[in-house]
Design brief:
Elements (H helix, E strand, L loop, with lengths): L19 H11 L11 E3 L2 E12 L3 H4 L5 H12 L4 E2 L4 E12 L4 E4 L22 H7 L9 E3 L12 E4 L2 E4 L5 E5 H7 L15 H6 L1 H5 L3 E4 L9 E5 L8 E7 L2 E7 L6 H4 L11 H15 L5 E4 L8 E5 L8 E9 L2 E4 L2
Parallel strand pairs: 5-6, 6-9, 9-10, 13-14
Antiparallel strand pairs: 1-2, 2-4, 3-4, 4-5, 7-8, 11-12, 12-13, 15-16, 16-17
């Protein structure tokens, strides 16, 4: 099982995955700018959902992240619906994102997943190593100061979902959100708590992220270990979704005005909706991961439930829909945007 993304052999003409500085240089050379845009605030009655982006752009080559990837099958999906929203033809890379969701209910402010973070020792993935991004400033500009977050909910404890759990302060890792309860699935926590994890490569052990982004929260008394069906309030409830990691969870939002499911890393890229049998190389239990993915595709297909994944590029929010004019019985992702308070299907 691979957890940390190993160093890749990059094409020198292409940026490293989600390396925004390299993207800016590359785009200037190409005579264009990369602007992923922003997901407008989604309204579910008095509940709102927004996205705070840490980085977005060309990421992995499809054949790298999906070991069972089929080039012809992918090309057919590209022609049908993927291009140009979710694939960068010039670099040959998938368009992906690192972002957190901000859910505001009448009672709470909840942050879902916390990306990579600043100052973290991540030599296995160079664009993530000791990085500096204005994530907290961007979050504050959205009207969410760190002190105002009530809950931090991690769908799982992989490196790119826990980074902003903590920040470096006077040489120590301290919780970034001082008044928040951090919700960790008890099975997920127990797995990463194991002391016998081996070296992950490049001098970094697999416990590094756990030790700098999870343990300090536990030591500060802000962590809450929860079961898979834990309810945050009357609109938000966790749901077990194992496979990508042992204790991976969905977060379901249910209101009288609509529903959504935050799917974490059960789907890294929209093509997995059409091909749920394509596991990522980072899945802990690939057969279970496929079953979980197939189940969520079947359950939400052709319904009004919005799917909000952890790494989809813009348009991020969307529906899973049947695709009778496409590849047989396979589904596709239909992104939506907002205009004047209405959800509009992206063409």
């Amino acid at each position: 099982m691979v957890f940390f993304r190993p160093a890749l052999r990059y094409d020198p003409a292409s940026p490293a995955p989600q390396d925004t500085a390299a993207l800016a240089v590359l785009d200037k050379r190409r005579g264009r700018s990369y602007n992923p845009g922003a997901m407008e605030k989604l309204h579910f009655g008095d509940v709102t959902v927004e996205r705070c982006v840490e980085s977005e752009g060309p990421s992995f080559y499809p054949g790298f992240i999906f070991p069972d990837w089929d080039e012809d099958a992918f090309a057919a999906e590209r022609r049908d619906w993927i291009d140009p929203l979710y694939f960068d033809e010039e670099s040959g890379r998938l368009l992906m994102s690192l972002h957190s969701y901000i859910i505001r209910t009448p009672h709470h402010t909840i942050l879902v997943d916390t990306c990579v973070g600043n100052d973290k020792h991540r030599p296995d993935t160079k664009p993530w190593h000791m990085r500096q991004t204005p994530f907290l400033e961007d979050l504050t500009a959205m009207g969410v100061a760190p002190e105002e977050v009530d809950f931090v909910m991690c769908t799982h404890l992989h490196v790119d979902h826990i980074g902003w759990n903590t920040k470096l302060e006077d040489g120590r890792w301290t919780p970034t959100f001082p008044n928040a309860k951090y919700l960790f699935h008890e099975t997920e926590y127990a797995y990463w708590e194991k002391a016998d994890m081996g070296d992950g490569g490049s001098g970094m052990t697999r416990r590094d992220a756990f030790e700098d982004s999870v343990l300090p929260v536990m030591e500060a008394g802000q962590a809450v270990l929860v079961e898979g069906d834990h309810a945050i309030d009357d609109t938000l409830q966790l749901e077990p979704s194992p496979g990508h990691s042992p204790g991976h969870v969905f977060l379901n939002l249910e209101t009288e005005h609509g529903s959504a499911v935050f799917t974490g890393d059960v789907m890294h890229h929209p093509v997995q909706i059409a091909y749920p049998e394509w596991n990522s190389r980072f899945c802990y239990d690939p057969p279970q991961s496929q079953r979980t993915r197939e189940a969520i595709v079947e359950r939400t297909a052709d319904t009004s439930t919005l799917v909000l994944a952890a790494h989809f590029a813009m348009p991020v929010a969307g529906h899973i829909v049947s695709n009778p004019g496409g590849n047989g019985d396979r589904c596709k992702f239909q992104g939506v945007s907002q205009q004047g308070g209405r959800l509009l299907t992206e063409s």
